[in-house]
Amino acid sequence: MRKRIYLHPIQNLIIILLLITVVLPDSVKAQHELLSEGIPVLKKYDKEHLYRIAMPIGGIGTGTVSFGGSGEFRDWEIMNVPAKNYSTVTTGNDAPFFSIYTKKKDETPKSKALLGPIHFADYQHYEGRSVNHHGLPRFRNASFASTYPFGMVSLSDSTMPVKVKLLAYNPFIPGNADASGIPVAIIKYEVENISNETIDISISGNIRNFIGKDGSEYTSDWKGDYIPTGAKENKNAYRSGKNFSGIYMYSDGVDKASPAWGTMALTAPLEENGKVTYRTSSAQNEWGNALLDFWDDFAADGMLTEKTKLIDPDPMASLAVLKTLKAGEKKTFTFYLTWHFPNRFAWSKSNVGNYYATQYADAWNVIEKEIDRLPTLTQKTVDFVNAFMSSSYPDVIKEAALFNLSTLRSQTVFRTTDGKMFGWEGVMDRFGSCKGSCTHVWNYEQATPYLFNSLAKTMREVEFGYAMRETGHMGFRTNLPLVESGSGINVAAADGQMGTIMKFYREWQLSGDKDFLIKHWPKIKTALSYVWIENGWDGNQDGVMEGVQHNTMDVEYFGPNPQMQLWYLGALRAGEEMAMYMKDAAFAKKCRVLFQSGSKWTDENLFNGEYYIQKIQTPISKASIPKGQMAGMGSKQIDNPDYQLASGCLVDQLVGQYMAHVLGLGYLVKEENIKTTLQSILKYNKRETMYEHFNNMRSYAMGNEKALLMASWPKGGRPAIPFPYWSEVMTGFEYTAAIGMLYEGMQQEGIDVINNIRDRYDGQKRNPFDEAECGHHYARAMASWAAIIQQSGFGFSAVDKSITFTNKEGNYFWSNGSAWGMCTIVKTGKGYQANLSVNYGSIELKKITLGKELVKELKSPVIIKENQNVTFELPTGPRN
């Protein structure tokens, strides 16, 4: 039961008892089917929309294996590098898979791979196939459903006496980065006996010990096929733990300094009604005999006969569990795949390690430590999903926010041995894309700070503690190891540096960590003061960025433009707020004066009546440009620079305002101009199809797809050579426009933009768990979480001990990065009632606000702990 909180009656607090597990409202139950274990389905994919699905399963910073739409396990990215489309072999019947055996009394047994049908796209090949396990018997019907981090494949076949549901996931608990960072894939097969007889059923997991083969090194066979290499003297051993058993996989031959060196384990819990058998090897892998040898053994009686002789350098490990099911009975077969690969290099020449690897001795130790805890972590993950799903947000907003969280589990993100979080911009098929926790890309995302604030704080510590020089010049890419962070590429990006100041303000507000601010305040001041150096971004200190500004378009803008200018105005507002807290009146005043003058100038000079434009302004000479403000990727001429925006309508010209809204910093320029600009972005940048659109760069929208273009020039004046990505479509930028629309009351328009994005990632054309930009799992797309913040009206300050929500009736999931819960807003005869629950962590409050006017200030702070609930009454009328 939830605990009661007794408070002074003058505070008008009503205490309500609730069950610890979140109970879904009837309306939500009616709208959403259940996956399993009380988990509501957010999105379903039929057989026509399975081909591209690959849901990453693994912890934050651990690497992942992806769960495919037909039940396959693909993209084995557990060895510290990306490995798209890598299943330990490129072709053949040799990748990891699970299979099922069924036997009725006095009937011939039936066995199949636990996979759906092969997609037609994989039928054409010079050997008749291009997909793994092409020759295994499969189920005729498959579908996929998900509420991230849970994915489920349903398999059925009229020739089989069973239906199978496969649930795969990894614990995901906002506020608990360690519990969300376990190197495990939990795999559960729920088997239903649909016959009228008792059946023996066995499920076997099969995986070659591919330690050393991370997909990055290949040889070629006589056919020209690429065959991954690297395994050497790999060995498997059957082991038993206290309440589990399985195969431990290790290597005696792979270099222990290699990123591909480590251990794996495939285990199953010991159960009274389950019989475990195993094999630690197989027949020699030639002419397909290894698979034949396994299949003949398993298909005979559902049990495995051990083979101790290790022939191949990557021996197959097989683990089977046999159970008996009565007619109509359901039973679950659970497997755990764990891994431990300690050597990560990322963009460093030396080993920076993995935080998760410091928590466990090896892959066996992972399950040894966690198996008793996994049911609790699973339930807390279910609680999170249920709370989120019971919210009043439109489903497409839930989908965009939730599914993009998978990026936090991909190879885009990692944690070094000291626990600090770093990120690529995204990942290519075989290596990371664009190193250094790039500030101007990571500016956009809101998932990390609002779900794992402790991790976001480590990124700020790196930016201000390692990436910044004494002058205030902050490199927009951080080098590794951190002692080398001042070397290499060290260009300052105007948007990146200004965004970092706003992000620091956000992390401070969410955490309430005054020591965090006190420690870094001198450097924050220096970073903002860097804007004002001679001939710099705002060298004349008038609140306007006129200088040469390297930015997220990977070029330099010359002269004032809305994208950099609004980041600057936002940084001035954040700087003012932090200065006031630090009692630095002079600096606060300077920030305020520059903000006011810069805001006024922007409206008067850059707003053309419909949207904000760039006014190209060239420097006196190339020599006058401060060192480190040009990356060399933009214009070679400064008197008539290429790669500019000029009079164009930019999709994310209001990105600084987007950030200011999320942070509660108010309007940076005139409110009416913001609304008009968003309407113009829709008017000029939206395309109903891409058939008539010319694009000389990358295509992330094609054919009949709807999208917002990066830029348009409705009034003419397009530069002969615009900024590089002008003709593209990229989801992270689209989200900022869509969420800006939501903040300005353009609800349907904003939802439509988000819906158009998600329609492009429908499982058939693209992977719903991989919004790409310059690489897979692109960090910028996690801007989608800001739609949750906007829809709930959520704002939180641990500094002021205040919380804010919309005054619109509904149920709202909230999270501040260390705690999360629900807030239900109900209109009453006297005003509003806000029922606030904490499902994880705790918060301390002195004030609650609904909308802009309804404020409840408490006589003394109240601490709401985990599994506690408080109802606040907020009468309308005079402030109470």
TrEMBL record:
Residues 54-373 form the Glycosyl-hydrolase family 116 N-terminal domain. GO terms for molecular function: hydrolase activity, hydrolyzing O-glycosyl compounds. It holds the Pfam family Glyco_hydr_116N. Residues 495-786 form the Glycosyl-hydrolase family 116 catalytic region domain. InterPro entries: 6-hairpin_glycosidase_sf, 6hp_glycosidase-like_sf, GH116_catalytic, GH116_N, Non-lysos_glucosylceramidase. GO terms for biological process: carbohydrate metabolic process. This is Glycosyl-hydrolase family 116 catalytic region domain-containing protein. The lineage of its organism: Bacteria, Pseudomonadati, Bacteroidota, Chitinophagia, Chitinophagales.
